[in-house]
């Protein structure tokens, strides 16, 4: 498929978004290539270290977000059909949830496995080998490798964070957030191996538990955000912390139309784009027509590319689920509820 044909459902991407999407895809392929190298290197030197094993598992899990992103981008490119009238935007949310659950499960496994080793007092051996006639402790290579791996994920994470915000892609954002924090895993692993070299056998398992806790933290926060979006919660910003400002922007635009007395929006995040229902209360006696409703919907769509699917409904009063709405049990009380 030609890259210029990329779209999110009905939404034809602007040249700027086309560039952002291509950049995101390149970054994900670079990440997959980088992870393939790091996973192989860690496997070569990890020996019996619990911390190195945990770092290896975390890097294996790191394959899931970029693969999920690349698959989702292909799926959401398809237009809506009779069987899928809302399009395939939920593929982004599903990919987000799959990646988050993988983190949560494997992080929990690492904590339990490492804690059992700590309780049982396991002393993981780290061997030596001969290099140029000298006996070298293998731990030096482990420590050097983990310290060398610190800068690249942080750099990739920062690049992805910017593109994720431009595309409103929470899979990419979660991936970027985890990469930016990956330095803790590398540093913790190096410290754990160094502790073994100093004779502190428990340092290795403690470092592995620390890594497991970091993975679980990422898993829990991303599971919460993914489930919230899939459960049709009100559209929120890419971080999931605040309501998305486009909700109020759409409502303000609808209220600015001369024949509209009041308006409220019900907006859910479909993945990259929003499904928007605008409830409008017309001025008394204002003439209505399908053309007027279509003009209002098109005006809201033009506000932002994420407002792809807009439905306008005429109502006598705003439902409780939107700003300024009336609670059902209060509809018999004064104001507009008395109609």
Question: How many strands appear in the DSSP assignment?
Answer: 7
CA radius of gyration: 26 Å
The CATH class of the largest domain: Mainly Alpha
Largest sheet: 3 strands, mixed
Q: How far is the N terminus from the C terminus?
A: 55 Å
Arithmetic mean of pLDDT: 81
- The appropriate CATH architecture of the largest domain is Up-down Bundle
Assign the structural class, choosing from mainly alpha, mainly beta, alpha/beta, alpha+beta, or little secondary structure. mainly alpha
Write down the secondary-structure element order: EEHHHHEEHHHHHHEEHE
CATH fold description of the largest domain: Alpha-lytic protease prodomain-like
- Record the strand order, biggest sheet: 5-6-7
Describe this structure in words.
It is found in: Membrane. There is one protein chain. This protein is mainly α and about 350 residues long. It contains eleven helices and seven strands. It has helices at about 15-45, 50-60, 65-75, 90-120, 140-150, 150-165, 170-180, 180-195, 200-230, 245-255, 290-300; strands spanning about 5-10, 10, 130, 135, 260-270, 275-280, 310-315. A three-stranded mixed β-sheet has the order 5-6-7, covered by helices on one side. Strands 1-2 form a two-stranded antiparallel sheet. The chain has a two-stranded antiparallel sheet with strand order 3-4. Helix 11 links the parallel strand 6 (about 275-280) and strand 7. Helix 3 (about 65-75) packs antiparallel against helix 4 (about 90-120) and helix 6 packs antiparallel against helix 7 (about 170-180). The longest helix is centred in the N-terminal third of the chain and has 31 residues, at about 15-45. Residues about 1-5 and about 330-339 have low confidence and may be disordered.
């Amino acid at each position: 498929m030609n890259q210029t044909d990329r779209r999110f459902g009905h939404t034809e991407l602007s040249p700027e978004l086309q560039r952002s999407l291509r950049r995101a895809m390149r970054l994900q392929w670079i990440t997959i290539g980088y992870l393939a190298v790091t996973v192989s290197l860690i496997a070569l030197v990890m020996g019996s270290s619990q911390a190195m094993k945990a770092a290896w598992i975390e890097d294996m899990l790191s394959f899931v977000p970029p693969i999920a992103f690349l698959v989702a981008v292909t799926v959401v490119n398809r237009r809506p059909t009779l069987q899928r009238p809302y399009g395939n935007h939920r593929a982004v949310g599903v990919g987000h949830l799959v990646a988050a659950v993988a983190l949560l499960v494997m992080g929990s496994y690492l904590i339990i496995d490492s804690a059992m080793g700590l309780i049982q007092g396991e002393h993981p051996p780290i061997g030596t080998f001969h290099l140029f006639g000298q006996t070298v402790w293998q731990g030096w290579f482990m420590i050097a490798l983990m310290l060398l791996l610190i800068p690249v994920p942080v750099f990739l994470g920062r690049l992805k964070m910017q593109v994720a915000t431009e595309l409103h892609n929470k899979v990419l954002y979660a991936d970027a957030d985890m990469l930016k924090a990956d330095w803790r895993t590398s540093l913790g692993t190096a410290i754990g191996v160094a502790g073994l070299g100093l004779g502190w056998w428990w340092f290795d398992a403690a470092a592995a538990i620390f890594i497991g806790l970091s993975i679980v933290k990422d898993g829990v926060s991303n599971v919460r955000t993914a489930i919230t979006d899939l459960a049709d919660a009100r559209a929120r910003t890419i971080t999931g912390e605040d309501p998305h400002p486009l909700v109020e922007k759409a409502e303000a635009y609808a209220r600015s139309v001369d024949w509209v007395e009041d308006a409220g929006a019900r907006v859910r995040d479909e993945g990259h784009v929003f499904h928007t229902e605008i409830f409008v209360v017309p001025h008394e006696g204002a003439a209505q027509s399908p053309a007027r409703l279509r003009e209002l919907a098109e005006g809201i769509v033009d506000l932002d590319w994420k407002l792809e699917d807009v439905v306008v409904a005429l109502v006598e009063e705003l439902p409780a689920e939107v700003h300024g709405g009336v609670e059902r049990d209060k509809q018999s009380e004064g104001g507009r509820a008395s109609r």
